[in-house]
Amino acid sequence: MATFILIHGSWHWGGCFQKVANILGAAGHAVIAPDLASHGFDPTPTAAVTDITIYAAPVRAALEEIEGKAILVGHSVGGATCTWLGEEMPERIAALVYLTGFMAPAGKTARDFVMMPAYLKDPAIVETQGMLRIGKEGLGLDLTKTDLIARSLYSDCSAHDIARALPNLVRVTPHAPFVYTSSTTLHRFGRLPRHYIECLQDRGLPLAVQREMQAAVPGAHVHQLDTGHSPFLSAPEAVADILLNIC
């Protein structure tokens, strides 16, 4: 039996992985899907999340409480938490999985990759920029822009799943995971098995940027899904199949 810790991305909550968690659980594996600080049911005020140690504390706590090792799966900016914990606690981690996730090399941040021309000039990003608000506390999402959010984050999801997801999104994701500067080393993070799951139709994190990160941090085993940004909703069986083969 493996233990999976599923780490959500910007504005989301642990429960977004419920479909995938159900499949993994039915196969006999343990699954933890915590809410990151200030997301979901976590009561931490957004303004109090000043660095990655606070933001990712719920994931670290889960990792510390389990017996044995866990497979960490980071979606989107949840990848920053994977990278941080991969360096902090490699002895507790069996593998790192980046699900269309931010995977920054040493000395770089997730923000560095969203400032690249491959991101800023991507047609899907240009189309949906109106849903974003950069503020003092973090990266804001205009929750009234439901059509833009759906086209960006849930482009291949059912109307039912979109309707269930939208009310659970938070207004702001703290800056912390975007500005965390990776400090990975070869003898800690570098010794862990890594997997990168590309989402080929992603309108939230362009494929070209996903591949820029893979080139910057070589060595991951690459898998592909012909999906948009949220395959945990649109293709949970395919996500689970990859994870089950990893464990």
Write structural notes for this entry.
- It is a single chain.
- It contains 13 helices and 9 strands.
- With 247 residues, it is α/β, with parallel strands linked by helices.
- Helix 1 packs across helix 13.
- It is 37% helix and 17% strand.
- Helix 4 links the parallel strand 3 and strand 4.
Layout of helices and strands, plus pairs?
Blueprint: E1 3-7, H1 18-26, E2 30-32, H2 52-55, H3 57-65, E3 70-75, H4 78-88, E4 93-99, H5 110-114, H6 117-120, H7 123-128, E5 132-134, E6 138-141, H8 146-153, H9 159-165, E7 172-174, H10 176-179, E8 194-199, H11 207-216, E9 221-225, H12 231-234, H13 236-246
Parallel strand pairs: 1-2, 1-3, 3-4, 4-8, 8-9
Antiparallel strand pairs: 5-6, 6-7
Helix pairs in contact: 1-13
Category from helices, strands and their pairing: alpha/beta
How can the largest sheet be summarized?
Answer: 6 strands, parallel
**Total helical segments:** 13
Instruction: Tell me the β content.
Output: 15-25%
Would you identify the regions where 5 or more consecutive residues have pLDDT less than 50? Answer: none
Overall morphology = globular
- Rounded mean pLDDT is 97
Integer-rounded radius of gyration: 16 Å
Order of helices and strands: EHEHHEHEHHHEEHHEHEHEHH
In quaternary terms, these chains amount to single chain
Helix content: 25-40%
Number of strands: 9
- Numbering strands along the chain, what is their spatial order in the largest sheet? 2-1-3-4-8-9
How far apart are the termini?
8 Å
